[in-house]
Design brief:
about 150 residues; alpha+beta
């Protein structure tokens, strides 16, 4: 078992477009619905290529291999990376409560524990401008929520 780290920071409007964040349905729509069939084909092509965070954390594993920020065998190492990213972005958090320095160590501790039993971590924060920051740590080989998903670094 190991853990992959993901980070996405981009326009809030792009993050809010849920169509970009959902995997396509496993079955295509009927052929007599050309508009829906075209949208389906676009989703099949675009979802795995898009760097926008998926709605379900495990689906980070189907995103481009190049966006994996790091891979760690030990939960504490993965959680350390998360803590470093949180410290880096904290000054830009839109919410004063989220900038609270006491909160960040709790998030890192929780991440270490959750990764230890094979869970995933997904955090999101609104930043100024308006932007959105998504951080995720996804357990791999296998993922508990989606064991059928293949490791991106295999």
């Amino acid at each position: 078992m190991h853990h992959h780290g993901y980070l996405w920071c981009g326009p809030k409007q792009r993050f809010d477009d849920e169509a970009l964040r959902r995997p396509p349905h496993p079955d295509p729509p009927p052929g007599d619905q050309p508009d829906r069939l075209q949208r389906y084909r676009e989703a099949v092509t675009e979802f795995p290529r898009s760097e926008v965070p998926p709605m379900e954390t495990a689906y980070w594993l189907v995103k481009p291999r190049a966006i994996v920020q790091g891979t760690w065998r030990e939960p504490v190492e993965a959680a350390r990376w998360l803590g470093e990213r949180l410290a880096e972005y904290t000054p830009r958090f839109h919410s004063r409560a989220e900038r609270d320095g006491l909160r960040l160590p709790l998030l890192v501790t929780d991440a270490t524990q959750r990764l230890g039993w094979g869970g995933d971590i997904s955090l999101g924060f609104y930043l100024e401008r308006p932007s959105f920051l998504a951080l995720a740590l996804v357990t791999c080989s296998p993922n508990r929520a989606r064991p059928e998903l293949i490791c991106p670094t295999a």
